[in-house]
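WARN retry 2 of 3 for item q-0093 after timeout on previous attempt; input resubmitted unchanged.
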Amino acid sequence: MIELLNNLASYLHDVFVIKFDGWVVLGFVAQGFFTMRFVVQWIASERARRSVIPLAFWFFSIGGGVLLLVYALYRRDPVFIAGQALGLVVYIRNLYFIVMHRRQVSADN
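OK item q-0093 returned
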């Protein structure tokens, strides 16, 4: 049991201390963007008492997606790269739909 705990402590030290660099900071900032998108969605839904996806959700999604894609490219992780790249297409497309809808509403009024 002591050996297992020592191995775990050594692993965590390696991952969170020795390998800590600017890229890890970027990864944490990117993850923070993704966390914030769910926070703003949750707050907006609570206030409306129904499911709402605010505009800030898509901006945090794009910010987090771009930063995580850069991080994934640096780490050379094909699964992570493909996932983030596809996600960015969806986020940008949704933002495009929102902008087009708002222009249409403005033109109708």
